[in-house]
Amino acid sequence: MKVRAKADFYGSIKMDKDETREIENDPVISDLLKMGLIEILDEQEGGESDESERN
After folding, report:
1. Is residue 45 within a helix (H) or strand (E), and if so which, with residue range?
2. Which helix H or strand E contains 38, and what residues bound it?
3. 1-55: per-residue pLDDT in tens?
4. Residue 23: Cβ-neighbour burial (10 angstroms; 0-12, 13-18, 19+)
5. Are 49 and 41 spatial neighbours (Cβ–Cβ below 8 Å)?
6. Distance (Å, rounded) from C-alpha 32 to C-alpha 16?
7. pTM for this one?
8. Chain-centroid distance, C-alpha 50
9. CB contact at 8 A, 10 and 28
């Protein structure tokens, strides 16, 4: 799943604020979600964002 860091954190996974990364479903992910350190990004077919079309 693709996630984005809401803050800098380190441990078994290290990410900087606003970094996005593809991470396998890991027990650590649910803990990071509960603490509000990451958010899950919607994955789209083809891997490209439609944001430019919306503006």
Report:
1. none
2. strand 38-40
3. 899 999 999 998 999 999 999 988 778 889 999 999 999 997 654 444 444 444 4
4. middle
5. no
6. 13
7. 0.69
8. 18
9. no
